[in-house]
Amino acid sequence: MTEFIQTVSPYLPAHIFDIVMVPLQIIILLFTLYFFCIGFCCLWRRKEKKILTPEKTFAVVVAAHNEAAVIGQLIENLNRLDYPAELYDIYVIADNCTDDTAEIAEQAGAIVCVRTHPTKKSKGFALEWMFERLFEMDKEYDAIAIFDADNLVHPNFLKEMNHRLLKGDKVIQGYLDAKNPYDTWVAGTFAIAFWVIDHISHLAKTNIGLSACLGGTGMCITTDVLKRHGWRATCLTEDMEFTMKLLAEGIKTTWAHDAVVYDEKPLTFKQAWNQRRRWAQGQFDVAHRFIPTMIREGWKRRDIRIWDGCIYLLQPHFLMISTFFIIISYVQLAFPPFYTSIYKFLPSQLMTAIMIGQYVLPMIILIKVRAKLKAWFYLLLYPVFIYSWIPIIFLGFIHRNEHEWSHTKHTRAMSMDEVMSDVKYTLRVEGAFEAAHRVVNYPGKCDRLHGHNWVVEATFQGRELDELGMLIDFKIAKRALAAILDDFDHYYLNDFPPFNAGVNPTAENLARIIFERLAACEEVAASPAELAALTVWESPKSSVTYTKD
Predict the structure, then answer these.
(1) Phi, psi of 93, rounded to the nearest 5 degrees
(2) What is the pLDDT of residue 451?
C-alpha cells in the first residue's frame, strides 16, 4: 500500500482525509478483485471418476420445530432415496413442538426423538443434543447427514455423499437448490441468490482447492469428526460456526455439486428480511469470535484456505465499508474534493470488466441452471434483494450480541415428484435383441416356447448438462444399453438368472431387470442424467414401461 501511495503521490492533491479514504479504497478494490477472480472460476468443473458402490452408513437427521405442514413429504422423500435402505436410518428431532410434527414423522416411518428445553431452543442446541444420543447407541454410523424439515432431497444424494466419503472427505456440503423458485418474486430472487452463491462461491472455490461453507442443510459430517472435535455450534448461524471452527483446525468443507437439496424459499419480503437479519447477526458473531484465531492459525499452518475463510466472514464488514464509501462519494460531488479517488489511476478496462461482470455472472448462472423465463423477469428485481442487504447488515451489526432464535414458518408442502416434474431435458435411446421365452403357467399360447424381436427404449431426464452441454452422450447411453441387451440376444430367457430361479420372463420383469442393470452402469451413473423409464416392446403394438417410482 505504501509503495502504491508513493508511486501516485506526485499526482495527488494533499487532502487530510486521504489518510482514511485512500486505504479504504484500496481495501474495497482488493476485496472486489478477490471475489471477482474467484467468481469466474465457476465456469468449469473438475472431472472425476465417481465411486458408485454403496458402502457408507448414514444417520439422516432432521431438526424440526412445529413442521407438521411439511415434515411428512420430506420423510416420504427420504424413504425413497436411491440407496440401500439397510445403510441409512431417518431420525427426526421434534424440538419443542406444540403441533403434530412428531406423530406425522413417526407415521411416515422416521425414528422420532422428542426434545424439550425452556431456553436452549435453537437448531444448534437440538443437533448437539441429537448427536450425543447417536453416539450412545449401539449402532454406529459412518456419517451423519443433516436436513431441514422443509427440504426435499434428490434421490442420488446419499450416493454422492458415499462417493465423497470414500474419496476421503470428512465434511461435505450439498448443492442448495430451491423447491419453490417461481412462487413469488421474493422466492424467485432468493433462489437466484442461492444459485449464484452455489456457483460463484462454493463451486468456484472447490475448483481451486479452497473450502466451501456449510449451508445449514444438505450437510454430511463423518461421525469421527463430530466425536473428535465436538459440535458446540449453537449460535444463530450454527453451520457457519462449525465450518470456521473446523477450518481453524485445518479441516475444510468439500462441495458436492451433484448432491442436490431443495429448500423452501421465503414467500414474503418480511420473511426474507427476518431470516437474513438472523444470518447477519450470526455472521458478525462468528466473525468476531473466530477471525483472530483463524488469522493466527492461517499464519501458523501457512494455509490459504483459513485466510480465505476470514475473508468470507468479513463480507458483511466489506458491505458496511462499501456503503460508507459510496455515501462519502456522493457527498464529495456536492462539495470541493476533500479526498483523492484512486480509481482514476486504474485502467478503465479493469473497472469496466468488474462493472459488467457483476451483471453478466448471474445471467451465466441462470443459463447454467436452465432457469425458466419467469426467473429472468425476477432478475430485474434482483437488485432490490441485493441492496436490501445494506440495512439488514447494519441491523445485524447492532444486534450481533443477541442470540434469540426465531423460527421461519414453512407452509409450502411439495412432493419430490412435483419438484422433479420441472425436468428440462428428456433423452431417449433405442436398442433391440431377439430371444425366446415361455411365460410359465400362463393360461394360453404364451406358455409355449416362442420368440420375439424385442425392442427396448431407455428414457433419461435431467436439468443439468455436462461441460460439453450434454445430458448424457448418445454414444455412452447406446453402448451401455447394447451391452445389457447383448446378454439376452439369441438366447432362451428362461435359462438365465433370475428367470431360471422362479422369476417369470414376462415383459414386465424384463423391463425392470434391464432398467436396474442400466441404472447401475458406471458411465450412466456418472452422468448428470437420471434413468427415468425403460420400455420393452414384444411387438409393434404391445409394450411395457417400467419406472422406479
Answers:
(1) -90, 105
(2) 92
Q: Where are the alpha helices (DSSP H) in 334-398?
A: 348-368, 373-387, 389-398
CA atoms within 13 A on the CB side of 59: 25
Asked if 101 and 71 count as a contact pair (C-beta separation under 8 A), the reply is yes
- Give the CA count within 13 Å in the CB-facing half-sphere of 462: 23
- What are the DSSP calls for 189-231, one per residue? HHHHHHHHHIIIIIIHHHHTT--B---SSSEEEEHHHHHHH--
Mind listing the pLDDT tens digit for each residue in 398-428? 988 876 666 666 666 666 666 666 667 889 9
Arithmetic mean of pLDDT, 221-249: 91
Per DSSP, the chain holds a count of helices (H) and strands (E) of: 20, 12
The per-residue pLDDT for 483 is: 94
The vertex-102 CA angle with 100 and 107, nearest 5°, equals 95
Strands (E), 116-186: 143-148, 152-153, 171-178
Q: What share of the chain is helix, strand, coil (3-state, %, to 5)?
A: 50, 15, 35
The domains found in the chain, sorted by start residue, are 53-266 (3.90.550.10), 423-546 (3.30.479.10)
Mean pLDDT for 234-261 is: 91
Give the type of residue at 159.
K
**What gap in Å lies between CA 71 and CA 325, rounded to an integer?**
46
Residue type, 438: R
Q: What is the pTM (predicted TM-score) of this model?
A: 0.76
Between residues 334 and 546, which one has the greater pLDDT? Answer: 546
CB atoms within 10 A of CB 313: 23
Q: Tell me if residue 546 falls in helix, strand or coil.
A: strand
Strand partners, 115: 95
Which residue in the block uniquely carries the three cell numbers 478483485? 33
Q: In Å, how far from its chain's centre is CA 277?
A: 22
Beta-carbon contacts of residue 387 (< 8 Å; ≥ 6 apart): none
Which one-letter DSSP state was computed for residue 156? Answer: T
Q: Which long-range contacts (CB under 8 A, 24 or more apart) does 325-334 make?
A: 325/21, 325/24, 325/25, 325/28, 328/21
CB 94 within 8 A of CB 115: yes
